[in-house]
Amino acid sequence: MDLQEIGDRLEVIDVITRYTRAIDTRRWDDLHVDVFTPDAVLDYSSVGGPVAPPSEAVPWVAQGLNGFDRYQHIIGQVSIGFADLGSTGRPDEAHVTAYFTNPMVAVAPDGAERLLEVGGYYHHTMVRTPDGWRSRHLVDENLWMRGF
């Protein structure tokens, strides 16, 4: 592994961090600027959501999380496979799978808190852009739920 690959790996992991931070802090516009390409497709079908561009999928995510007071993504293993698609010899595409757990807190009218959790994989196809790595395709593969 050379320094270029190490740098690319760190940048790809940073895209995943920006994705989860934007959601956890409800900074929905950051997803359009810092995470996804303009032609991205997001697939939330494993949780009953759309397969759509960010302009349609992000509002669906935001609406679904309105019922929770707080939530926090926890990212585990991240697997990155690069494809050398450019004439520069640098990878221009990456296939990424990140394990996730997402605990969420719902607050009842009486103030009681209820903890719910989901877990699974985020599968991204990322591409190198003039602004750095961005996700062109996301599949949210929800594997388990607890407390629902």
Q: How many domains make up the 3D coordinates?
A: 1
Q: What is the level 1 CATH name?
A: Alpha Beta
Radius of gyration: 16 Å
Structural class: alpha+beta
Give the number of DSSP strands.
7
Account of the 3D structure:
The chain has 148 residues and is α+β, with helices and mostly antiparallel strands. The protein has one domain: Roll (Nuclear Transport Factor 2, Chain: A), CATH 3.10.450. Helices cover 28% and strands 47% of the residues. The protein has 3 helices and 7 strands; from the N terminus they run ααββαβββββ. The chain has helices at residues 3-24, 28-35, 54-65, and strands at residues 36-43, 51-52, 70-71, 74-83, 93-107, 113-129, 132-146. Strands 1, 2, 3, 4, 5, 6 and 7 form a 7-stranded mixed sheet that branches. A hairpin with a 2-residue loop joins strand 6 (113-129) and strand 7 (132-146). Helix 1 (3-24) packs antiparallel against helix 2. It starts with a helix and ends with a strand.
Task: Give the topology, please.
Blueprint: H1 3-24, H2 28-35, E1 36-43, E2 51-52, H3 54-65, E3 70-71, E4 74-83, E5 93-107, E6 113-129, E7 132-146
Parallel strand pairs: 1-7
Antiparallel strand pairs: 1-2, 3-5, 4-5, 5-6, 6-7
Descriptors for this entry?
Nuclear Transport Factor 2, Chain: A; seven-stranded mixed sheet; 28% helix; 47% strand; alpha+beta; 148 residues; 3 helices
